[in-house]
Sequence to fold (467 residues):
Amino acid sequence: MPRVDLLDSECAPITVQQYFANGDPGPIVGALATVPELLEPTLGFVGAALGAGAIGVRYKEFAILRTSVLQGCDYCIHAHTAVSLDSGLSTTEVRALRGEIPLEAGFALESERSLIGWIDALAGATGPVPDDVWSAARRHWGEHVLVELTVTIGATMFLNRFATGLQLPTADHVLERLTTEGLA
Amino acid sequence: MTDTIAPSDTVADAVRSGELPGRVWLYSNYNCNLACSYCLTESSPRSERRQLSAEQMIAVAEQAKNLGFTALGITGGEPFLIPWLPETALAMAESLPLVLLTNGTLFTGDRFERAARLAHPDIALQISLDSHLPDVNDMARGPDNFAKVVQAVPLLIARGVRVRIATTVSGALDDPLLDPLKQLVASLGVREDDHLIRPIVRRGRADEVGLGIRAVARDIPNELTITADGAFWGSFGPTVRSGRLDTDLLLTRTILPLAVPAAALLAASRGMPAGTDARLGIR
Fold:
């Protein structure tokens, strides 16, 4: 059960009703709408940070799914397991990002493992990030890629805590799909 | 956030042109000594106070003036349940003219003396009276309401307090059956143009019992309304149904700086088709 009322189209505040015009916009919007002045800027930021951007949807999903696993956010793990599959990641890659099989079993390229190393260092630990993790990633990726990925990781951590703290529920159709694919 | 704050001249222009009403309403509190059958906010002695502080109310008044609004209103709940309310109202009236809504049933002893201090050229008390028949009035508003109001009004006027009477009706606003009430109100010393007759709006408790006219946002005057729960479109916005605050007319949870909700109100108003508020007489 969510900890807050998830607003629907009937009780959506007048300033954000456009987000409800095409049906249920989901629990993140339903919860954010209780503070309507935060909805637009938050969605603007999150949408830009989690959208395809310059580095493409594959690496964005690396960051979002892996971060959500490290932060233990069931809502985001469920949602982005489905999005990752839709974005072309294989079931093996998804399992590796979810920590169910070794990373090496899912990702043969050192460049991609270095990117995941950067995600792990940021989202799976606190305090300073070791230089060798940065250097390993920089051998393969430009600064702008790592900056964009870092924004995605940070935005995902925000969403992870938002969804976990407010106990946002996973949509039934997502759970059904993941159950079918053995990834629930 | 700064780019969402309307510059003061924008709001002032909107008020001058009539795009925004000049009055800013404040819900000082939600608790009340009465539990009227058509109450928009389900106020009663058991309601949570959800009270604005004196500092917040005075800041709203000052910032409303700076933004270009032209008048203030305080409503509730019953504002006179708050001991410091008269002093705060006097401080707010230093910024803008003020109308203070009250059920008028608490004006005995010390409370009467505190209310009498509101004899001020820029302050009016607005007291509810719904019928010239005590039983009919008291059926909606509670036992002895009629007697207390008709006793308090002349006494307040005698002390120099400007009193307006608000009558809330379920029928036509020009019903000849209201004539005896108009005569009664005049006999209490209230000016004819200080007697306001308005419909019950079907929100809050009135909605639960099927009373009043149905109204959507465009039917409700878009007066900026400040409460402890946030800022709303219109004084009929922050209603309560089955103990739950209606959020459909919520503008922002931010109330200060006032420019934040004022900008949201202006933006919402510009996205709204013309309404029927004048025809429905909601005020």
